[in-house]
């Protein structure tokens, strides 16, 4: 194409979005707000329950997945921050191969009636679709251009959606008080733990995660999992997925300095299947003991003992 032809072609095109991928979306948004003054961010939760036709590297995804995506507008350009939580996506692949966070894709807006033909044109040119899916009437096609361009090129129709979103699907960062007085920050280690438990029970995991240090250490976490706040959030998500009605109740707290010891009951129903086992549909209630170190209103270390034997016995229908 001549320069004149390129100018004419690009005059009709629209770059809609630049996106980065991160391991900790809250930490990333905080930096964008504090350093660049960019925000607020609309944070969406995408899962196998609200995304259809989801394919990764040419294969339909049938297993559960979850992704957090935050967007903020700067002029005519949309900025996106995405954090993979669990399940197959191209974002995990990016984090593993890049060894860090960074720019993942640039998105061009294409009209709905042309987008499939445009994606096919790129495929014919040797750039296959490595991820695609629908959210309501919004569709995206991620093209395998990483080796040539250093980033993924995305095609999307970018429609305006009128959605009724629940708190587990949508939030705003920084949070909006709508004129109400800001809640009082927890003032002691025991208060911090109590606030986290209350938010966990209510399913407000993003707010609870704000009270976990970015590099917090959970001494009870399984080897191989993510560390810090990200790993904590992943474990919470998996727990909520496998035991949807899980509930914690603090029975007793003892504080000393920046440490607090807690005695809880943990109850729930095995309706999904725990650790890959078939669900028993039995309820359980067990005791949990833990010790937490809190610094500047955030959990920094955690140790715990869970009565796993009692839980196993109850799920088998035995006395415990």
Write down the CATH topology of the largest domain: 2,3-Dihydroxybiphenyl 1,2-Dioxygenase, domain 1
Report strand %.
Answer: 35-45%
Q: Give a quick account of the main beta sheet: strands, pairing sense, barrel closure.
A: 11 strands, mixed
Fraction of residues in H or I helices: 25-40%
Neighbour order of strands in the largest sheet:
4-3-8-9-10-7-1-6-5-2-11
Uncertain runs are 177-183
User: Averaging pLDDT over every residue, what do you get?
Assistant: 89
Structural class: alpha+beta
CATH homologous superfamily title of the largest domain? 2,3-Dihydroxybiphenyl 1,2-Dioxygenase, domain 1
Ends apart, CA distance between termini: 76 Å
From the spread of the alpha carbons, the general shape counts as elongated
Number of domains: 2
Annotated CATH architecture of the largest domain? Roll
If you had to describe this structure to a student in words, what would you say it looks like?
It is a single chain. The chain is of the alpha+beta class. 28% of the residues lie in helices and 38% in strands. It has helices at residues 3-10, 25-36, 90-98, 112-124, 146-149, 189-202, 205-209, 228-242, 308-315; strands at 15-21, 41-47, 52-56, 59-60, 66-74, 77-86, 102-109, 129-135, 138-143, 152-156, 170-173, 212-218, 247-256, 259-269, 283-295, 298-306. The chain has an eleven-stranded mixed sheet with strand order 4-3-8-9-10-7-1-6-5-2-11. The chain has a five-stranded mixed sheet with strand order 12-16-15-14-13. A hairpin with a 2-residue loop joins β15 (283-295) and β16. Mean pLDDT is 89; it is low at 177-183.
